[in-house]
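Our preliminary data section would be incomplete without showing what the modeling component actually yields. Below, a chain of 215 amino acids is followed by its predicted structure, encoded as tokens that our downstream tools consume directly.
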Amino acid sequence: MLSSGHFSHAKGVLMKTFSIISVCLITVLLTVRYIWLLVKKEIKPALAMWVMFSTAVGMSLVTYLSSGNFSFFDNILNSVDLIYVVTISAAIAVFGDKTSKITRFDLGCLIVVLLIVIFWIFTQNHIVTNFLVQTILVIAYFPVVKRLFETRQNTEPFIIWIGMLIAPFLSLLSSQGILAKVYAVRAIICVGILLVIMLWIEVAGKKSKKSEITV
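Predicted structure:
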């Protein structure tokens, strides 16, 4: 018979394996879906924004790995996110709308991320750099939220954002270290708030249409 210690260890290994596989599968599906929308010209993302994402997510992972004796699997969400954003960036470069111009916001975020990279190179302060990167990744949601409020129309696909909410929850089962947990919780809060706003706009839009029909 297995002792309680062995059982707990086996349970922990099983949960970690489930977490890693689930997050990887969700990310693969999200990547395929996003590229499909890109190829079909249903979305027109700016390459500069995704280059910023790639740099920021990459720095987040580098500082995490440098902050302790961790592996890529200990922060699986950050690890697969890096593959996701780099793949999407490459897809945008190949299939994206070449007329999409870089906005001042995109350029500003990219410059700030590069400054954070320079800060890390000179200070080697992994913790502070990581938190600075998380701040940028939060700010990166602002244009989406702003567009939703200004247009009062939801053009964001629920399926992708729901997947992006489930993945960080599952990643917490295998996350090791405070920075890995911060990365996941930051994603949960940001995506959760965005989904609430999207849902609110959808409901408000339907109510508005009903009132117009009634009149």
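The two ends are 72 Å apart (CA to CA). The helical segments are 4-39, 47-66, 76-95, 104-123, 126-139, 142-151, 158-171, 178-214. Preliminary results of this kind motivate Aim 1 of the renewal.
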